[in-house]
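Request:
You are asked to prepare a plain-text protein record giving the amino acid sequence and the backbone structure tokens, at your earliest convenience.
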Amino acid sequence: MTKSLQKIGSPKKRRIGSRKNVRKIQKGVIHVQASFNNTIVTVTDIRGRVISWSSGGTCGFRGTRRGTPFAAQTAAGNAIRTVVDQGMQRAEVMIKGPGLGRDAALRAIRRSGILLSFVRDVTPMPHNGCRPPKKRRV
């Protein structure tokens, strides 16, 4: 017969509820990346740590519907709803890309009640770009 081992120390304390660390954030940065196929909205704090994010695909839109303005509006609303509950009051907006969801996402952000300190377009622009291919010989 084997002897039962005696447990040393107190039993583990179980954590009840959510494991996420909910922190109060007054100011943040909202990044909107609008391509022709999808719109991704990411909310970060000032240091760049992601608080919440959403996209047309995560909101349930599939295929060509992901790039529509309505999908961008829904994605922006979903991303901002969680940070408003955490106490965010002010934000800066960085918009990148040529997609259809740019204006719709910005409209949804304005409607959420967050005060916007500035809106900046950070779309990358080429300074003369890549070298073009050689001319075709006939």
Notes: The first strand starts at residue 27 and ends at 34. Residues 48 and 68 are 27 Å apart (CA to CA). The chain has two helices and five strands. The first helix runs from residue 69 to 85.
